Each structure stands twice: as C-alpha cells, then as structure tokens.
C-alpha cells in the first residue's frame, strides 16, 4: 500500500485568519439628556414661581400696608377685691378701646375672651365678644368693648403673696393684669381672610373705688401679639 504523505508546507501555518474584534458602539445618551432637560425646566419654573410669589407679597404689603389693631384699657372700676380664707371676692369693670389703624383693611371681631390675674394666679374668665355681638370694624376707626369680672374664686396665696396683697389693700391700689384672646378676620374689598388669633396683654394698677382713696386709673396701652 502506498503511503499517503501530506505535502510539506512552505513556511509556518497558523490556521485561518481571525477577524478583528468589533468596536463597541457608543451608547446613546439621548434618554439621559431628556431627563436632564426636564429637571432643568421644572427647576427654573419653580424658581420663577417663587420669585413671582415673593414679588406679589411685596407689592401687596407696599400697597395695602397691613397693620395690627391697637388696644387700650380706658377705664377700670374696682368696687370689691377682698381675700380671706383662700377665697377672693371681686367686682371689677374694664372698658377697652380697639383701634383699627389700617387705611384699606376692615376687621371682623368674631370672639374675644378675657382672663384676669392677680399675683400670677387667674381669678376670673369672661367673654367680651361672642358670636351674638361680634362686629365689623371699619378702617381708621375705634370701637369700645367692656368686660365685667364679678364673683369669687378659691385659690391659695403663699406668705409673700399675702404680704403683697395686704400692702395693696393698705394702698387701695391693686396690680392686676388681663390677657385677652381674640379671633378676628381681615377684609380687603370683597376678600375676607381666614381666622387670626392674636393675644393682648394688659398690665395695670387699678385703684379701689372708695370715698377714702384719691387714686385714679391711668389709661393703659396693651401689647398686641400676633405670634
């Protein structure tokens, strides 16, 4: 049998040629670019809305110039204020004036509650204004209010407070303070605001009404706090 010999190759043989690796295609950034554009648009829109809102508030304040009301204790009539056996008997009438200094805003007084204190303890609580007698106060105007505190209240004074009471009793002038809690609304044209709940603080000395005492009450301006 004849030998089948493979012909010898001239030179080295390395097999079939290997094609070069395919170059990776660059990924598309189109979707990411769209997201960035949308985010930038909404961010700029938000900033523009904030700036416009700030300008609107600034223009409103410059045009309307809103101001809180002013409050005074005009008169105080104290006919009884006696403490014994841990019980305070009292009878006091206070006349107030509320002043609206605004040129464009009216005020609705929906509710006013007054609390009277002596030596840091509350001894009376009355309604000055309720829904039955609520009223509208027009711009640049003043309106009177009154509060009647009458009755008795049980509370305990320590020795220092009793000494202070005896001193006030001797002088027939008592250091009393009143806190008033309001619920009001503002009106501009046909627009009416929501409820505001300012607090008013009135600190004053009130003389006992008697034939002996010559002390007189001094009109007192109260502090109005909207916060």
Automatic annotation (TrEMBL):
Region (Disordered): 1-25
InterPro entries for the chain: NDR1-like (IPR044839)
GO cellular component: plasma membrane; plasmodesma
Alphabetic keyword roster: Membrane, Transmembrane, Transmembrane helix
A GO BP entry: defense response to other organism
Residue ranges crossing the lipid bilayer per the database entry: 41-64
Endpoints of the signal sequence: none
Protein localization: Membrane
Record protein name field: Harpin-induced-like protein
The organism of origin for this protein: Medicago truncatula (Barrel medic)
Lineage: Eukaryota, Viridiplantae, Streptophyta, Embryophyta, Tracheophyta
């Amino acid at each position: 049998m004849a030998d089948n010999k493979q012909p010898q190759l001239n030179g080295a043989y390395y097999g079939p040629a290997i094609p070069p690796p395919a170059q990776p295609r660059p990924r598309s950034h189109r979707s990411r670019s769209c997201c960035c554009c949308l985010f930038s648009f909404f961010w700029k829109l938000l900033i523009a809305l904030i700036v416009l809102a700030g300008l609107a508030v600034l223009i409103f304040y410059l045009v309307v110039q809103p101001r809180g009301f002013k409050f005074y204790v005009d008169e105080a009539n104290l006919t009884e204020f006696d403490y014994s056996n841990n019980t305070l008997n009292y009878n006091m009438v206070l006349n107030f004036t509320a002043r609206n200094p605004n040129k464009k805003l009216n005020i609705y007084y929906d509710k006013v509650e007054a609390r009277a204190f002596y030596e840091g303890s509350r001894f009376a609580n009355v309604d000055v204004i309720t829904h039955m007698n609520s009223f509208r106060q027009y711009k640049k105007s003043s309106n009177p209010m009154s509060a009647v505190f009458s009755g008795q209240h049980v509370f305990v004074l320590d020795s220092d407070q009793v000494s202070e009471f005896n001193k006030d009793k001797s002088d027939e002038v008592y250091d009393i303070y009143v806190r008033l809690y309001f619920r009001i609304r503002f009106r501009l044209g046909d627009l009416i605001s929501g409820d505001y709940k300012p607090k008013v603080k009135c600190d004053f000395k009130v003389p006992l009404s008697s034939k002996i005492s010559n002390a007189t009450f001094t009109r007192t301006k109260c502090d109005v706090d909207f916060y």
